[in-house]
Design a protein that fits this description.
- The complex is a heterodimer of chains A (798) and B (560).
- Chain A is of the alpha+beta class and 798 residues long.
- Helices cover 20% and strands 31% of the residues of chain A.
- In chain A, strands 1, 3, 4, 5, 7, 10, 12 and 13 form an eight-stranded mixed β-sheet that branches. In chain A, strands 2, 15, 17, 18, 19, 21 and 22 form a seven-stranded mixed β-sheet that branches. In chain A, strands 23-26-29-32-33-34-35 form a seven-stranded parallel β-sheet.
- Chain A starts with a strand and ends with a strand.
- Chain B is built from 21 helices and ten strands.
- A ten-stranded mixed β-sheet of chain B has the order 2-1-3-4-9-8-7-5-6-10.
- In chain B, a hairpin with a 2-residue loop joins strand 7 and strand 8.
- Classes of the chains: A alpha+beta (798), B alpha/beta (560).
- The interface between A and B is large, with 29 and 45 residues.
């Protein structure tokens, strides 16, 4: 079926939309539905679908012929006041028999929170054979998370185990409604339900379409890395057809490359593929590979796919889910990487995959258990993951933690006792269990004994004050990068250290043969030969030496990240030249600061302020910033919005979990430049003369930034955010969808007419030029629709 | 099954009365025993091979396994601390070690990054006991050779032609009166001395280092286990071996007391402990009579009395026990105890009473034990079937050595153990090999369960981990109770039918787990057979068995 049906997410059709839409009025579908009158519905009536059992509507009596269609559905939630939506999950699908045609992303973030307002969902549907789509609606109550208190889903009802399965059908009112053929006013209908308005199929094209545009890689480095683009053209008719495929590369807001064209003959009921060569130049950030299909000098269909260009990858990074352990799950990697690609993930981390966190990143056996956390991994899986990711341009980074861990790590520690740390007695921060280690080979080779060895983590902390330790760690990472292909490393514990004897430092440099290198890398410290090197100097030695070796021995594109957060007091007094030299050192040469602690934010206010503060200081130091999403969020899209608006990057999730919701990653791949570019500096609204009416209750002032353009003009970027109605990330009760807005006006002082672009990821990636109106001391624009997050780029000539 | 644990616990508790009192009053010992507390990398010191070389029985406890008390210390002659920090031992244990040495016990302290100056010894009794002072580590990357010191006394002549090397050393300054036994380069690295009545050996060698290719680090030197074993043996040599036994403190039961008891007039004080301490046929008879009279007082049960009754069981008891083995007996523990005892009576009808119980899950274990004691060779086939069936069911499909852990611990380890012991007692030709194999398997799984339980314990605040821990502890305790403890009891002398096979096996055994079981069985049997019986074992491959046999043959004093 996958070969027959294709959902083209970002296609635009020009011409050939001659067929009228088939508008389907949804009728009753079994005893879970009721008819209601609703003035907001397109014909004054809608169908209320109870949250009880799956409900199905066969939509068409005659099948849809092969072709590309646009499917439209209007719906709104109709839930009693204080109904707890935090655990209610909705599912809307189009199916043809057992085949899933498409799934509508119905969640609380994509539903308009204004009472009584229908949300319109539009999706494209392509089929190469006749189909009779059936609309399927289902809902379920999410199971309680570990430690989450049971609570009623419906007000006035005590919590019960039943809540975890489904809302019971229990009211007399429902019984009445189900048997009532006459529509009743929606205001009188109180059952928890979803109101469905009309469904619609619009034929887009039943001759030739661009079925797929596929840049080979989702991310490439600048400076000549090839990224060929293949374009697949589909012919829905039985006769062969000839067309011209024109490919252009679009970047920035309106930069378009010279077109490449190829003529293509597509067999009847078949496809043809064109391949276009392309290499990166110096222009970084997002690109859209736009394929136009031209027949008889007319463009009949257009489709675009996105990728980004940057070095380091952190500049445009959208990081996938780390924390994978893959033994026995190697077969899932093709789907996992395909999902990453589909979601525009361009970098992913292998968390604690190695036999010993610091001292052994080069396993030589086919399978092994990790020193940290005892995960089971395999070479076959690692190589498959790496090759699949690389073939898609997805970078893979290795995790690092400064311990010698697991049996091989402890053996290293036995051999090199001067290279690790000691506490007052014995190994500092270390742990071991002799019997467990003695039994290791048995318990780790027997599947039935897996439960008896899970979770152990035996380690000693390495002494990062010693040159030998730093050299060992760097060598292992470099060897591993050459062995497996790592594109970067994340230091989960930033390799800073405390003061060391200057004499010892120099003696170690001499012993390691790195005196000249260190003299160059550490000009401000190298001359200190007596007394002590303070912690900043020793840390600088570590950070610079690591980078030096990575960049010279692996690649100048090698990406380095640090799990590093600053306390509020340090941010308040932040001065990278004085009190935060080590932090600034970590940000240098393209370093990324990863903020893992933010995931524990309990409130959206806390999350967004933390993201903004932490990303701000990282950017101030020339570095890149990354945020974890807020855990257990009811409206997870807000993690994405607050992360991107803060100019930070996402680490999307743990484990084999899902990626970010919505089209935010696609949007940032294409237009991330207008959030991330480090040349955008914060500006005060008053100083640049921006006003937005408070009645819209938008968050925007802390996010206002501007940069100079290469032509001497100014680009001011606005992030307009409708904050969540619930400040709690995971509200216990009373969660509400955010209402959308129309007609928001934005005014900015200025003399010359600006060019204003509206960029949005909601519901799909959009770029729209808005018409500024002269208004008082400047210009005003009106935003036709604003959902949760709108980006405005306000360009003014010099 | 649960009820059966009761009488086994009581048997063990009763056996232990008066033995493990927390005191430095020594327990008599046939040979020295070492108590080894193991720290990081202690395996590299080859402690176990050294102890076998020297013929010293031992208990090894890793730091993670240390319990709160040292109640068992009076069993031992010498304590070995292998790279162990004083704070990890806790002050009370360190003080106990000091008392132990002062009373004549031995102490050997091995160096490492958790010992001496890095082990927080300064300011503790350990610093006082040790024959050296210490303050830093020497690092000799290229290594220094080991040689016997000119002042060495008890250290044997060494073959250092292999050039054994050490790389990281605890630096020592010998105290006055201390004797340097071994040098690393020109530095003292094994130094001996005394404290109170005891002896102490300080070892400054560590197993750290990265030897260059071709070099022989001391821990790989073939002579090292012998040298180290000698050090442990010397340290334990001052501990008095034959001392007034705890049993001697308990008065034997008098005839009047027994008569009063038999007639149900009065229960003597401390009856069970005194009966176990002074086993006699008339005591067993009196207990049996009282327990089997219809108006028995009920203060003592058959289960509790089993250790007293078993050695003196006789056919005449059979009929009176017979009725208690019936399913009508509502007390399952009593019924199981009667089944075991009826087997031991060798009553001609015992087999016919035991076989029906073999087919019932609740009496199967007791029936197997009873059949073993009954000694009827015709039942070997049935017991063998029980063994084979349990083994087949418990093994991972397609495997010959590895069991499905949960069923093995919950049920089959007990059946396999009881069948193996019964076949051994019945004189089966493969009896001893089967017991040794079972012993190895049970020990391995017991270690796996114990270790996993310890690890889970660290996550006790996680409710899921806590549930897993409970399950793990349950499995661990069942395995321990029904299999491991059964194998450790060594209550019986070696059956006559197994003596030849036992001696043949013990002559060549080298596996430490096998040796441990064989030595236990040998210890339980030495006094029951003529000393000459053990002559062939004086040249056994393993030092522990050879030393036990030598002590039996020559009654030579053990320890120097």
């Amino acid at each position: 079926m996958k070969q027959l049906l294709h959902l083209i997410a970002f296609s635009v059709v020009v011409g050939l939309t001659s067929a009228p839409a088939q508008v389907i009025e949804l009728g009753m579908a079994g005893n879970t539905t009721a008819r209601v009158t609703d003035p907001a519905a397109s014909k004054g009536e809608a169908v209320a679908v109870r949250l009880t059992a799956p409900t199905q509507w066969p939509l068409l009596k005659t099948p849809l012929a092969p072709g590309l269609y646009r499917f439209t559905l209007r719906l709104q939630s109709h839930l009693p006041k204080d109904y707890d939506i935090t655990r209610l999950q909705l599912k809307l699908q189009l199916r043809d028999g057992d085949n899933l045609l498409l799934e509508l992303p119905v969640n609380w973030t994509v539903l308009d929170g204004r009472p009584g307002v229908y949300t319109t969902f539009v999706r494209e549907l392509a089929t190469t054979r006749p189909i009779k789509p059936v609309l399927v609606f289902d809902s379920k109550i999410r199971a309680l998370r570990l430690g989450e208190k049971k609570r009623p889903v419906q007000p006035g009802k005590k919590p019960s185990a039943f809540d975890e399965e489904r809302e019971p059908v229990a009211t007399d009112e429902l019984s009445a409604s189900l048997t009532d053929e006459t529509a009743r006013p929606v205001a009188e209908f109180n059952d928890p339900s979803i109101l469905l308005d009309t469904a619609e199929f619009q034929l887009v094209n039943d001759t030739l379409v661009v079925e797929k545009v596929w840049p080979e890689k989702v991310h490439v480095y600048p400076g000549g890395e090839p990224n060929p683009v293949t374009v697949t053209v589909r012919n829905y008719r039985p006769q062969p057809a000839t067309a011209t495929v024109r490919l252009t590369m679009r970047t920035g807001l309106d930069e378009v490359s010279a077109p490449q064209e190829k003529s293509v003959t597509v067999p009847g009921n078949g496809t043809a593929i064109c391949r276009f060569d392309w290499k990166s130049g110096t222009r970084e950030y997002g690109y859209g590979a736009c394929a136009e299909l031209i027949v008889a000098d007319k463009t009949v269909h257009t489709a675009t796919e996105y990728f980004s260009v940057s070095t380091p990858v952190w500049k445009t990074s959208l990081q996938g889910s780390g924390f994978l352990t893959w033994y026995g799950r190697e077969g899932e990697f093709p789907d996992h990487v395909a999902s990453n690609r589909k979601n525009y993930i361009n970098v992913e981390e292998a968390f604690s995959w190695q036999p010993s966190s610091w001292t052994d990143l080069n396993p030589t056996t086919e399978v092994w258990h990790t020193g940290q956390c005892n995960f089971h991994n395999s070479l076959k899986g690692l190589r498959l993951w790496m090759s699949l990711s690389h073939s898609n341009g997805i970078k893979l980074t290795t995790y690092n933690w400064p311990t010698a861990s697991g049996p091989v790590g402890l053996e290293w520690a036995r051999r090199y006792p001067e290279l690790w740390c000691y506490g007052d007695v014995g190994p500092g921060r270390g742990s071991f269990d002799l019997e467990d280690l003695r039994l290791y080979d048995i318990t780790h080779s027997r599947p039935e004994l897996k439960y008896f060895q899970q979770g152990n983590w035996y380690s000693v902390f390495v002494n990062m004050g010693r040159q030998g330790t730093i050299d060992w760690g760097a060598s292992e990472i470099i060897k591993s990068a050459k062995n497996f292909g790592w594109d970067g490393v994340r230091f989960d514990f930033p390799p800073g250290w405390s003061a060391m004897s200057a004499e010892e430092m120099h003696a170690e440099f001499a012993a390691a043969g790195v005196t000249n290198v260190m003299a160059k890398l550490l000009p401000e410290y190298y001359g200190i030969t007596t007394g002590a090197w303070d912690g900043v100097a020793v840390s600088a030695r570590n950070l610079r030496y690591f980078r030096h070796r990575f960049f010279t021995e692996v690649s100048s594109n090698f990406a380095v990240s640090y799990n590093y957060g600053l306390p509020d007091k340090d941010i308040a007094n932040f001065d990278p030249r004085k009190n935060q030299k080590v932090y600034a050192e970590a940000c240098a040469q393209g370093g990324q600061i990863m903020d893992e602690g933010i995931r524990n934010s309990g409130s959206w206010k806390g999350y967004r302020e933390e993201a903004l503060k932490q990303a701000g200081v990282a950017r101030q130091c020339g570095g890149f910033h990354e945020c974890f999403p807020a855990e257990s969020a009811t409206f997870p899209a807000y993690s994405a919005i607050f992360t991107f608006a803060a100019a930070s990057h996402p680490y999307t999730s743990y484990g084999w979990g899902p990626s970010m919701p919505g089209q935010y990653t696609a949007f940032m791949t294409r237009y991330g430049e207008y959030c991330w570019d480090i040349d955008f500096k914060p500006v005060e609204a008053d100083a640049v003369g921006v006003t937005i009416d408070d009645k819209y209750q938008l968050l925007w002032k802390p996010y206002l930034r501007a940069r100079r353009t290469t032509t001497g003009g100014t680009q001011t970027v606005f992030q307009l955010i409708s904050p969540p109605l619930n400040n709690e990330v995971a509200p216990i009760t009373g969660a509400k969808s955010t209402p959308w807005s129309t007609g928001i006006t934005v005014h900015k002082r200025g003399t010359a007419p600006p060019t204003v672009w509206r960029l949005s990821a909601e519901p799909d990636v959009q770029r729209e030029k808005l018409e500024p109106r002269r208004d008082g001391d400047g210009f005003t624009i009106t935003i036709p629709e604003h959902r949760l997050w709108t980006v405005l780029v306000w360009e003014e000539a010099q | 099954m649960k009820k059966l644990t009761g009488f086994l616990t009581i048997i063990l508790t009763a056996t232990a009365i008066g033995v493990f009192a927390e005191t430095t009053t020594w327990q008599s010992a046939a040979m020295p025993r070492a108590y080894v507390i193991e720290g990081m990398w202690s395996d590299f010191f080859q402690i176990v091979p050294a102890l076998h070389s020297a013929g010293i029985r031992y208990t090894c406890i890793s730091l993670n396994e240390l319990t709160a008390t040292d109640a068992e210390l009076p069993q031992y002659s010498v304590i070995v601390l292998a790279n162990v920090a004083a704070p990890h031992l806790k002050p009370a244990r360190v003080a106990r070690i000091q008392e132990f040495v002062a009373a004549g016990g031995g102490l050997v302290v091995l160096a490492g990054r958790s010992a001496y100056c890095q082990g927080g010894y300064v300011g503790t009794p350990l610093a006082e006991i040790l024959p050296v002072t210490f303050n830093f580590y020497d690092t000799v990357h290229q290594g220094v050779p080991l040689t016997r010191a000119a002042s060495a006394t008890w250290l044997p002549a060494l073959d250092v032609s292999a050039k054994p090397m050490a790389y990281y050393l605890q630096s020592f300054t010998p105290k006055p009166e201390a004797v340097v036994q071994l040098l690393a380069g020109d530095k003292p690295t094994i130094v001996s001395g005394t404290f109170g009545k005891g002896r102490v050996v300080a070892v400054g060698l560590t197993v750290n280092g990265n030897p260059p290719p071709g070099a022989v680090p001391f821990w790989e030197w073939l002579e090292w286990p012998r040298l180290f074993g000698q050090a442990i043996d010397w340290a334990g040599g001052a501990r008095p071996m034959q001392v007034a036994s705890e049993a001697g403190k308990l008065k034997p039961l008098s005839t009047d007391e027994l008569n009063d008891f038999s007639l149900g007039l009065k229960n003597p004080d401390n009856l069970l402990a005194r009966a176990i301490a002074h086993p006699r046929a008339e005591v067993a008879e009196a207990l049996f009579t009282q327990l089997t009279t219809p108006d028995a007082t009920g203060k003592l049960t058959l289960v509790q009395a089993l250790p007293v009754l078993m050695p003196f069981a006789k056919p005449e008891w059979g009929p009176r026990l017979s009725e208690r083995t019936e399913a009508l007996n509502p007390n399952r523990d009593d019924r199981n105890a009667a089944l075991i005892l009826i087997g031991a009576t060798r009553w001609p009808e015992a087999t016919s009473r035991l076989l029906p119980a073999l087919s019932k899950p609740e009496t199967k274990l007791a029936a197997l034990e009873g059949l073993g004691y009954n000694g009827n060779p015709k039942t070997i086939r049935l017991v063998q079937q029980a063994y084979d069936e349990a083994l087949r069911t418990a093994l991972v499909p397609g495997e010959t050595e590895y069991f499905q852990p949960d069923p093995f611990a919950r049920e089959y380890a007990a059946l396999i153990t009881e069948s193996a012991l019964a076949l051994y007692r019945l004189g089966d030709a493969n009896g001893i090999e089967r017991v040794l194999t079972t012993n190895r398997r049970v020990k391995l799984y017991s270690r796996i369960f114990n270790t996993a339980s310890r690890r889970e314990l660290r996550n006790w605040n996680d409710p899921i981990a806590l549930a897993a821990l409970r399950a793990m502890c349950d499995l661990s305790s069942r395995l321990h109770m029904y299999a491991w403890n059964k194998l450790r009891r060594h209550a019986d002398p070696i059956p006559a039918s197994q003596l030849a096979a036992f001696i043949k096996t013990a002559q060549t055994a080298t596996d430490p787990t096998d040796v441990d079981w064989l030595a236990g069985e040998l210890t339980a049997s030495i006094s029951a057979l003529p000393p000459a019986t053990w002559q062939p074992l004086t040249t056994a491959k393993d030092g522990i068995i050879a030393r036990l046999a030598r002590s039996a043959v020559a009654t030579a004093p053990i320890g120097k």
